[in-house]
Design a protein that fits this description.
mainly alpha, 16 helices, 3-stranded antiparallel beta sheet
């Protein structure tokens, strides 16, 4: 793998982390694509409103969906699992994405409708539904996690093709897909459990931050004005706190001393200062800890606003960058009732504490106290 910012996770047919980051994956060259459990075509979901019954040689009921988009093979199939996942998304999972009715309706109807002509988006919606199903129906957890991995891997192939050139014709679907990446990465419990150590988990979390930040480069930097007038404008409109950010806990404000009392260079001070400012902004916006959250709304707003300089320092595992990340872990911890977040914040803080050791422990006293008290 060509980039040191994330690790190959050996997912077939292509490493999910490398595919999301559009990096060359060494594992891809030596691995053969895993066969679909349903025997379906690799494109999985082809766009069409027309359905007809077909016989599945494995005895699994399937639906043939004639393709109407050039490049998709005619005869792709949905099996019963996919139909069940679509039903689960449209009746349950969409509500767990946000607590705002207008945004819930967008995820329930608009995103699915757009997915019918952009199969990679529909694949990712179903992948997240599968992760949610693994929590709602744990007796078939392995089945749902396997399907989630398969669907996301296939979705990323289509997404990376479109992401090569983003303009007003496709920035809506790119935004929707990018908004789902963080939910999937943090909500995939099977991948997290496979990590061998806290160091591996920290690497995973840093990869998540890097990948979520890609949203800014793909769509927010150049297409915000268009998106504010589009069918997904409900995702773009929110309260915009301004300094001095009255909702920031006093313990968190002490984080500014990390850079004001240091001997860091000017570029590092600027990078850390910008990351802390956006962190305070998110504390104020989310209203934590006084306001509980059971959906991931707002929580991914910090990673997408990070600068190149800060993420570079984070990828180097600079102590100051990791400490700031630990305070973001506090926000994640206050979102622990969201199924896709869970104990991610607590695990992040513990992993950073183990990485830094006693010399930096004074800066982690508040994050560690927060997770210990709940």
């Amino acid at each position: 793998m060509s980039s040191p910012a994330w690790q190959c996770d050996e997912t077939q047919p292509r490493c999910v982390n490398c595919a999301t980051a559009d990096a060359q994956c060494n594992y891809l060259a030596s691995a053969k694509p895993a066969p679909s459990p349903s025997g379906s075509d690799p494109s999985r979901l082809a766009p069409s409103p027309a359905f007809s019954n077909t016989d599945d040689p494995n005895g699994t009921a399937a639906v043939s969906i004639p393709s109407t988009v050039s490049g998709d093979r005619i005869g792709s199939t949905w099996d019963i699992l996919d139909m069940e996942l679509l039903h689960h998304w449209c009746t349950q999972t969409y509500k767990s994405m946000t607590d705002v009715p207008e945004q819930q309706l967008l995820w329930q109807t608009t995103a699915v409708t757009i997915g019918f002509t952009n199969p990679f988006l529909l694949n990712e919606l179903l992948a997240i539904a599968a992760l949610h199903m693994a929590i709602c129906r744990p007796e078939r957890e392995t089945v749902w996690h396997t399907r989630a991995t398969e669907l996301q891997s296939l979705a990323l192939t289509g997404f990376n093709t479109m992401a090569q050139q983003v303009d007003e014709s496709n920035c809506v679907v790119v935004l929707l897909f990018s908004a789902l990446v963080g939910t999937h990465l943090l909500g995939d419990r099977s991948r997290i459990r496979a990590l061998a150590s806290r160091s591996d988990y920290l690497d995973h979390l840093v990869s998540c931050v890097n990948l979520m930040r890609s949203v800014r480069g793909l769509v927010l930097k150049n297409h915000t004005a268009f998106l504010l007038q589009s069918s997904v404008k409900a995702l773009m409109i929110t309260r915009n706190p301004i300094p001095p950010y009255e909702g920031v806990p006093s313990e968190c404000r002490k984080l500014t001393a990390l850079i004001t009392e240091s001997d860091l260079g000017p570029s590092s001070i600027e990078a850390y200062g910008a990351a802390i400012d956006r962190l305070f902004w998110l504390f104020d916006l989310a209203g934590v800890p006084s306001k509980p959250h059971d959906t991931p709304r707002f929580v991914f707003a910090w990673p997408v606003q990070l600068t190149d300089e800060y993420t570079s320092l984070l990828n180097q595992r600079r102590p100051e960058a990791l400490i700031i990340l630990a305070y973001y872990g506090v926000i994640l911890h206050f979102y622990r009732d969201a199924w896709c977040i869970g104990d991610s914040g607590a695990c992040m803080i513990r992993a950073i504490d183990a990485q830094l050791g006693s010399y930096w422990s004074q800066w982690l006293q508040w994050p560690m106290k927060v997770i210990a008290s709940s």
